[in-house]
Design brief:
Shape: globular
Radius of gyration: 18 Å
Number of strands: 7
Helix content: 40-55%
Largest sheet: 7 strands, mixed
Distance between the termini: 63 Å
Length: 229
């Protein structure tokens, strides 16, 4: 796919030299937002490119502009579109939405029967997901594959996730189901979520504040205990 400024297409091994800058920007972006993402090495990103499980956006002059990759879990029963990132100078051009649409199409092509899910703290990504047919679900509706959840260990919010026995965290879980939910019902759920996105954003902020206050309280209590010992 291409538009006036960008070429968006499945990544291949020839794009491997962009892996370093992609992973660096992923980490910088997470730090700027104050939220965590599962860290990925340049080698891991190159593997995804070589496997044809990634989408890259380039400018017409060949500069890197954005990226996203596919991960499969539970023997291909679940698929996640992960690591969506856009270079700072190309943000606010609608590029994230276009990349997300392309990686969604690639996921449907490679894993036509899989449930596609995502975990995110970003309202913009939630909105894009809802446009594609995702709707909010509980964590219990996601993959139980331990390897997926291990990827959260590098996230700053991992202690919160584990304190909830992987049943909740600051991220919102969203799911696209190709078969088990009727298309009309799925569309309705996505539409309702999209209409109430501003309200949902406020609820996410409340949840974040609540979890962080609980974590702070536990740290303070532990510090007092250590101080007395």
């Amino acid at each position: 796919m291409s538009n006036q400024k960008f070429i968006i297409k499945p990544a291949t091994g020839e794009h491997g030299h962009y892996a370093e800058i992609i992973t660096q920007e992923m980490e910088r972006s997470a730090q700027a937002r104050g939220t965590g993402i599962a860290k990925r090495s340049p080698e891991y990103i190159r593997t995804k490119m070589n496997e044809g499980k990634a989408v890259i956006a380039l400018t017409k002059s060949g500069d890197w502009a954005g990226f996203c990759y596919i991960e499969a879990w539970g023997h291909g029963k679940f698929v996640a579109n992960s690591g969506l990132i856009v270079a700072p100078e190309f943000r606010k051009h609608g590029l994230a939405r276009e990349i997300k649409r392309e990686v969604f199409k690639l996921s449907r092509k490679r894993y036509p029967d899989a449930k596609i899910f995502g975990l995110t703290t970003g309202a913009a990504v939630m909105k894009i997901n809802s446009e594609l047919g995702y709707y909010p679900v509980s964590y219990s509706d996601l993959t139980t594959d331990d390897e997926f959840w291990k990827g959260c260990q590098s996230c700053v919010n991992y202690p919160i996730l584990m304190s909830k026995n992987r049943s909740n965290c600051l991220c919102t879980a969203m799911l696209y189901e190709p078969k088990s939910v009727k298309k009309a019902e799925q569309k309705k759920l996505s539409s309702e979520f999209n209409k109430n996105l501003s309200l949902f954003e406020r609820l996410v902020k409340i949840k974040r504040a609540m979890f962080l206050n609980i974590a702070k309280g536990k740290r303070n209590a532990l510090a007092k205990v250590k101080g007395k010992s």
